[in-house]
Amino acid sequence: MGFSTRAVHAGEEPCPTTGAHVTPIYQTSTFVLAGKIPRYFYTRHGNPTHAVLEEKMKILEGGGSALATASGMAALLTVMLTSLEKGDKVLSSEAIYGGTYNMLKFLLPKFGVEPIFIDMRDPANVKRTLDQETKVRIVFFETPANPTLDIIDIEKISRVARDAGADVVVDNTLMTPYYQRPLELGADIVVYSATKYLSGHGDTLGGIVVGKEEFITEARRILAVTGSVISPFNAWLIIRGLKTLSVRMEKHSENAMKVARFLDSHPKVRRVLYPGLSTHPQYKLARQQMRGFGGMVAFEIDGDTGDVYEVLEGLKLCRCAVSLGDVSTLIEHPASMTHRSIPEEERVRIGITEGLMRISVGIEDADDVIADLNQALSLLS
Ligand SMILES: Cc1ncc(COP(=O)(O)O)c(C=O)c1O
After folding, report:
1. pTM of the full predicted structure?
2. Predicted pLDDT at 128
3. From atom 2 of ligand 1, which residue's Cα is the shortest distance away?
4. In this predicted model, what pLDDT tens digit does every residue of 100-109 receive, in sequence order?
5. At what angle do helices 154-164 and 123-132 cross, to 10 degrees?
6. Which domains does the chain have, with CATH numbers?
7. Which of 32, 71, 117, 249 could cross-link with 94 by S-S, CB 3.0 to 4.6 Å?
8. Residue 93 beta carbon below 6 angstroms from any ligand 1 atom
9. From ligand 1's centre to the CA of 65, what distance in Å?
10. Is 291 part of the annotated catalytic residue set?
């Protein structure tokens, strides 16, 4: 069956007891035991609402198994704790979400894990580093990257990493399984902040890990120890969000293309980063590994932080907020918001300049979003 049909139906059956058509929220911490330990006995170890979300994501991603977590960060940390031991290294793309950077740079070294950050746009760079280093267990990247929208070649890097005995972990938050399926391109593990497009309405936190069954079984054991499990209600919101994922992604993508074209022609805008523009440096690769270009656009104005804040404060419809993948258009300033933890020198080198803004284009009428951006940009002298 097609993706949209699976998104609506996969993992869900009418309730055998009541006939309820929609999956119930099993809002319970514990389950009554009748002598032996059944499948569900305590929500930290599993819950029927979580199981429906996990089954749906497994089917949409085409993976062996899926695990739901409390947030995207919980999903990423669970993967790291499952895969790594003291003395291991993580090879990471340098253009990643600030929270993930924090985890790799500051938290994992406390436990003897060393991060190495490199530019992964050229797979030869990854091969060179893997040839020089020992004990690299994970090769991690986001593609497209948040917020630079760099595209990284999943297939080539997976091949290089496999030869070196490392697992490839891809954060697919910006694309979702509707537009990009890393496992089919050779990656080992896919991670999501389900807070974003998967739930889609800006009303919940959640995370998902998809990978081979043995890996997910071990990750589930780790998650039960750390306790970063999702609540049944949040899992239910993500199940509901997934049912409309394909229609929302199409609209986000269509609107983002219009917004990117508008910004590209605006005299106050220095450059626009959107994988769907033929001017994007990796446009060809984007077309090859993604089925659509998504809803994220980054653009740089000719100005500094003060000018960026003037634009942000002038917006009337688009909301200045971190996060992304919401039905509403959200706009932010990575250098002072989502990516402020990355030291300035590194930030500038990877393209997160003072004048860069990131926009998560919503599903409103594109003309209204464009008119709002236009009036706010006109405030710049
Ligand atoms: C690409 C990406 N990965 C992971 C995360 C972390 O997700 P969460 O906020 O759900 O913990 C974010 C959050 O913004 C993100 O943008």
Report:
1. 0.97
2. 98
3. 97
4. 999 999 999 9
5. 10
6. 3-243 (3.40.640.10), 246-377 (3.90.1150.10)
7. 117
8. no
9. 21
10. no
